[in-house]
Backbone:
């Protein structure tokens, strides 16, 4: 058996197209332009690449994009003051503070200073609590992207056995909540799970988000299961070159799975597409307008 490849790059382009059409309608019918502010503290190279890419795609869908680049030594009070200013700014509907922050800044304090209605990352404790109790919230972008791909491929997820490998606040935990919301039977496994192979073998849906290169081999996968690979790991090859790989061993998993997302070109592109979708959702909610269909949890 050879798995269907779930093309996240093409799916993300479709989602951005839908967001763009909705943004155009908001402008035409309501004179509204959704605005996203991204705050980057310091000069982490990977974060700089992400932030640039977010800014470009925000503009491409017709939204207002604002970037605040702060010095690595910025005092916490200055960062909190900027967040307060963005909270009050009526032209800004989404605020994202790029993580990780430099060590002297308290990440929880900073994230929880964002107005929950503008928290397009879905990291604020209010949004975490709302998601956990099945109420309307802002949903973290990466798990939202995974959910969209799963719904698109399967239609309904009702009654499926899902195993999420990884217990992070950004991916593992919210992913489990979303799958539960779609009536899956959910197991959260992690690097310390006993008999991890046997746990994963039960799954109709495997979401791998542990951050360990190629740690899930094909013989852990049930025949026909759907494998969503959230990992992005750079590994060095014998010739000294590097390559991006996921948390699953693609070749052996693709040989037994029913469907699988590649790395790169799977979950990655969906994350930014969902950030744009969340910004649009936040703008609609802030203005008492109907939410975009198919772009929320
Ligand atoms: N750093 C890596 N991924 C993310 C993300 O999804 N949101 C934020 N704010 N920072 C990140």
Residues:
């Amino acid at each position: 058996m050879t798995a269907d490849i779930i093309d996240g790059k093409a799916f993300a382009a479709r989602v951005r197209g839908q967001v763009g059409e909705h943004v155009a309608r908001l402008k035409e019918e309501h004179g509204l332009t959704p605005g996203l502010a991204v705050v980057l503290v310091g000069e982490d190279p990977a974060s700089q690449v992400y932030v640039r890419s977010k800014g470009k795609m925000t503009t491409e869908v017709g939204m207002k994009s604002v970037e605040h680049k702060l010095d690595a030594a910025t005092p916490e009070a200055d960062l909190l003051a900027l967040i307060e200013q963005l909270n009050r700014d009526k032209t800004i509907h989404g605020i994202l503070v790029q993580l990780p922050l430099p060590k002297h800044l308290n990440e929880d304090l900073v994230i929880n200073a964002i107005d929950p209605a503008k928290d397009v990352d879905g990291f604020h404790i209010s949004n975490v609590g709302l998601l956990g109790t099945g109420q309307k919230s802002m949903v973290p972008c990466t798990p939202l992207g995974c959910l969209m791909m799963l719904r698109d491929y399967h239609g309904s997820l009702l009654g499926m056995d899902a195993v999420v490998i990884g217990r992070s606040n950004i991916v593992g935990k919210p992913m489990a909540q979303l799958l539960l919301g779609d009536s899956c039977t959910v197991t959260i496994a992690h690097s310390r799970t006993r008999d991890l192979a046997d746990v994963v073998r039960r799954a109709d849906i495997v979401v791998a988000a542990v951050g360990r290169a190629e740690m899930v081999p094909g013989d852990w996968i049930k025949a026909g299961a759907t494998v969503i690979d959230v990992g992005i790991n750079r590994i060095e090859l014998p010739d000294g070159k590097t390559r991006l790989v996921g948390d699953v061993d693609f070749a052996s998993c693709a040989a037994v799975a029913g469907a699988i997302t590649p790395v790169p070109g799977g979950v990655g592109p969906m994350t930014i597409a969902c950030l744009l979708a969340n910004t649009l959702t936040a703008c609609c909610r802030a203005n008492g307008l109907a939410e975009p269909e198919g772009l929320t949890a």
